[in-house]
Design brief:
Blueprint (H helix, E strand, L loop, with lengths): L6 H38 L13 H51 L14 H49 L7 H28 L7 E5 H11 L1 H6 L3 E5 L6 E5 H18 L5 E11 L2 E10 L25 H4 L4 H11 L3 E7 L3 E9 L4
Parallel strand pairs: 2-4
Antiparallel strand pairs: 1-3, 4-5, 5-7, 6-7
Helix pairs in contact: 1-2, 2-3, 3-4, 4-9, 5-7, 7-9
């Protein structure tokens, strides 16, 4: 940016032009009034009757000239002071803008997380707050991106290492080639395939390009089927599952496969993390939100709950509240992130509440179908 294109000089110039115009008009009017009133004064005192200004005597002319000179000097002094004040005012406005420009340049260069210390309560202060919030959000997103790549690499490396080790052992005749080993390797391949597919679905859902095949679906039937499919895991831990389902009108307009995956993720998580002989309660209802009908699904368990500091992050990629959880006990870490994106893609909402030591509750709202 060229120096003389600076907003400081433009604001100063505009203020100066306005002031010089105002002062020039005032000086002209003052001079006019002085001439008029001085002539009236001389007329009143008998010094002149109808003589023009040029006919005034020498003392009168000297007096008027000195008054005019004084006014000109006063005007010049006021203009100089006004120019200085205009510059300072413009500078006070543009200095924080220069600071914000430097902050924007650091964001452009990829340096996130830095903030500017501007505490003004005007529009510039609001702009500073917005840039600070954007910088912090970009910093958080950048950290999440790094963590995402690290976790993806970790999740892929483990099954690939198992496959590679088994193949090398078979090639070296250390591991026998039999059906059991091949099935084990197939399981790892399927694990990698599921992870890649889930990540693809997540990325498509985030940019609203996930293809959905919506149809009117009975939510109660989906939930009953999910519980039946997970019954062996429920019996293994001696859990009790209570279904309190709405009798009529529990139809939602959804992609059955996507929402089925959401329900399986949440119910299987509850089964996995609650202790033996605990209980799970599943409730459905039909509600209205801003005069729009929704199907409400609430899945509540009586497990250990989730720490309050972990609640805001449980729907993020690869987030695990208990850092000690491994791949087998904690899954891939994207189940809830996937569930959230699938629900949002349907125009619904999903939220979690938890009380440590008492349990966790997941609430889902999905667009309702015909009543």
């Amino acid at each position: 940016m060229r120096k003389y294109n600076s907003i400081v000089y433009r604001l100063t110039g505009m203020s100066f032009i306005l002031l010089i115009s105002t002062i020039g008009i005032l000086l002209f009017l003052v001079n006019l009034q002085m001439d008029q009133h001085f002539s009236e004064y001389l007329q009143y005192n008998g010094a002149a009757l109808t003589l023009p200004y040029s006919a005034h005597g020498t003392p009168e002319q000297h007096f008027m000239a000195s008054v005019h000179h004084s006014l000109i000097w006063v005007g010049a002094a006021i203009l100089t002071i006004s120019l200085f004040i205009s510059y300072l005012t413009a500078r006070s406005i543009t200095k924080p803008l220069c600071t914000l420009n430097e902050a924007a340049q650091t964001l452009k260069e990829g340096t996130y997380g830095k903030t500017v210390a501007i505490t003004r309560q005007d529009e510039v202060g609001m702009l500073a707050d917005t840039i600070n919030a954007m910088s912090l959000q970009l910093h958080q997103n950048d950290q999440m991106r790094h963590h995402l790549f690290t976790n993806i690499a970790h999740e892929l490396r483990t099954p690939l290492a198992i496959i590679q080790g088994n193949l090398e052992g078979m090639i070296d005749d250390v591991i026998p080639v039999n059906k059991t080993m091949l099935l084990s390797m197939e399981e790892e391949v399927l694990r990698v395939n599921r992870l890649v597919q889930d990540l693809r679905d997540l990325s498509l859902a985030e940019i609203n390009e996930l293809e959905l095949h919506k149809e009117d679906t009975d939510i109660n039937a989906m939930l009953s089927r999910a519980v039946n499919m997970l019954q062996p895991l429920i019996d293994e831990k001696n859990l009790s599952v209570q279904l309190d389902l709405l009798k009529n009108g529990c139809t939602a307009y959804i992609d059955k496969d996507r929402i089925n995956q959401v329900l399986y993720n949440i119910i299987s998580n509850a089964i996995r993390y609650i202790p033996e002989k605990s209980s799970i309660c599943i409730v459905t209802d039909r509600v209205e939100k801003e005069k729009v009908p929704y199907i409400s699904i609430r899945i509540t368990d009586t497990g250990p709950g989730i720490a309050p500091e972990d609640i805001p992050y449980i729907f993020q990629y690869f987030y695990r509240g208990e850092k000690s959880r491994n791949r087998k006990s904690g899954g891939s870490g994207i189940g809830l992130a996937l569930a959230r994106q699938f629900v949002l893609s349907h125009g619904g909402t999903i939220a979690a509440t938890s009380h440590p030591g008492k349990g966790t509750s997941f609430s889902i709202l999905l667009p309702a179908g015909p009543a």
